[in-house]
Amino acid sequence: MSQQPEKMEEDQLELTLGQPLSDFLMQLEDYHPTIPDAVTGNILRSSGFEPKDPRLLRLISIAAQKFISDIANDALHHCRARTNNSSSSSSKSNKGTKDRRYCLTMEDLTPALAELGITIRKPQYYV
Amino acid sequence: MTTSSIDQQTNVYRKMLSAAICSICLGNGFDTIEKDALATLVELLQCFLSQLSLLSRNYCELAGRSEPLVADILLGFIDMGIDFSSFDDYIKSAKYPHLPPIIVQQPPKQPNMLTTGVKQTLPQYIPSYLPEFPVPHAYIRTPTHRQPIIDYESALTKFLAKTAPSTHKLFDTEDINTFPLIACQPNYPPYLSSLLPQDQIFDPEELEYDAKVETETVEHKKPGERRTEDVKIEKIEEEEQIQDIKTEENHSPNNFIDNPYLAAIKFSNSEEMDIS
């Protein structure tokens, strides 16, 4: 009996979560994700999923974009940490850290993906 | 659709995906990306999209619908462990350059066929819904090669005028080259040239035409403008030969060629000037 109010609170929370979502969908009308709608639509269609509302397409595009963006962000942190470590250990005179150019390498991508539970192995050979 | 064209299409979509990934990485602060890393991310992105669409479709079909709703996609997000509450902030904060929209390439237009001749109408006993006759050259013989222009004469006369052992001058000037006149040199047996066979006769029709034109021009000329005796003899020879051929080929009177590529040769007046 004592758990009932908690359940009610959860329901309330979900209701309030649902409200911004519809607002969010309205925002998607005039937001263009980096991945073009046509590309997302084609990949979805090849999986048998064909939403007619372009907003749903954009929702999925944004999810994918955020997925890649999070990975890239993680990889950037790894890259910075690695370069800082190497530069501090090798020479302290090099202080041009601000205008250093970053390259996304497999070395940084592998630990970033490992955090998401994706393990990357080097292919045994290239075709 | 062939397999190669399917490959090409997927390649285009993968190229767009890699472009999108590059723009995301640029927006995040990277300057360059390794080829392997880009390929991995493209694979990941494509896998993510297809996995999400599979899950969403399953939820959609579980609910007995064929049209997906937002709820199906959200359930797909939850299944994949994606937190969609942060999307709102994400789209406000992230500003990535837009990719150019995909433009469907128009197939190249087939050039129109050059029409020759008049199309035959269907006979009465063939119903009108049957296809029309094709262009006549498709089933009636059309000459496809052009007769070589045998225009040796003017060149030959020029050459003779320059190299002949004896040339006269038309005017009493020092300059020999302006109006040279070839002196007449009769051959030793005068009938010999008529006995020798002539080469390069490709089509009797063409030769006939040539001869007709030339005889006309010869008639128009004044006797004073006549060329050497040799040329005259040649003319007579040609005519004789043509008459022989004519008697052989008299049964095929259709010598009009309706082909714009094989139009009759136009003789300019300058040619006559050269000869005289």
TrEMBL record, chain A:
Pfam families: TAF10. Keywords: Nucleus, Transcription, Transcription regulation. It comes from the Eukaryota. One of its GO terms (cellular component) is transcription factor TFIID complex. InterPro entries: TAF10. Residues 81-101 are annotated as: Disordered. One of its GO terms (molecular function) is RNA polymerase II general transcription initiation factor activity. CDD domains: HFD_TAF10. It is found in: Nucleus. The keyword NADP does not apply. Residues 84-94 have a biased composition (Low complexity). GO terms for biological process: transcription initiation at RNA polymerase II promoter. Belongs to the TAF10 family. This is Transcription initiation factor TFIID subunit 10. It comes from Henosepilachna vigintioctopunctata.
Automatic annotation (TrEMBL), chain B:
The keyword Transcription applies. Its main location: nucleus. It is found in: Nucleus. Residues 10-86 form the Bromodomain associated domain. GO terms for molecular function: protein heterodimerization activity. GO terms for biological process: transcription initiation at RNA polymerase II promoter. Pfam families: Bromo_TP, TAF8_C. GO terms for cellular component: transcription factor TFIID complex. CDD domains: HFD_TAF8 (cd22918), TAF8 (cd08049). Keywords: Nucleus, Transcription, Transcription regulation. InterPro entries: BTP (IPR006565), Histone-fold (IPR009072), TAF8 (IPR037818), TFIID_su8_C (IPR019473). Transmembrane segments: none annotated. Belongs to the TAF8 family. This is Transcription initiation factor TFIID subunit 8. It comes from Henosepilachna vigintioctopunctata. The lineage of its organism: Eukaryota, Metazoa, Ecdysozoa, Arthropoda, Hexapoda.
